[in-house]
Amino acid sequence: MDMPAVTRCTAESCAYNQAQTCHALAITIGDPQHAQCDTFYSAPVAGGDPSAVGHVGACKMSECQHNVNLECQAPEIQVGAQADIVECLTYQPA
Ligand code: SF4
Fold it and tell me: Residues lining ligand 1, judged by CB closer than 6 Å?
């Protein structure tokens, strides 16, 4: 299994975000009631590897069409701020 890349994330207040790009090596999605980004962290320090693009390490949204064994198998995902939570915009309920 390959980990899908996070090709865009609009949560610019996240410590792992620079210029709408996620730099956490592996994020976790799902709480598991909502497809929220569990890795989102608002902090005054920069997180992650600035030379790396974030990937989905695990996802608890088992009912998503892209989910296989609690791993994401979408070609790529996008993450964004919706209302007051940061969530996977690629989530597709079965
Ligand atoms: S596309 Fe579906 S399986 Fe992939 S991270 Fe988003 S919610 Fe999880």
Answer: 29, 35, 56, 59, 61, 64, 66-67, 72, 74, 77, 88, 90-91
Judge contact between 15 and 21, C-beta under 8 A. Answer: no
pLDDT over 70 percentage in the chain = 100
Instruction: Report the run of H or E that residue 7 belongs to, with start and end.
Output: strand 5-9
- For the CA of 77, the closest atom of ligand 1 is 1
Atom of ligand 1 nearest to the CA of 71: 3
Can you give the three-state secondary structure of 26-84, one letter per residue?
A: CEEECCCCCCEECCCCCCCCCCCCCCCCCEEEEECCCCECCEECCEECCCEEEEEEECC
pLDDT by residue (tens digit) across 52-82? Answer: 999 999 999 999 999 999 999 999 999 998 8
User: Which residue's CA is minimally distant from atom 2 of ligand 1?
Assistant: 91
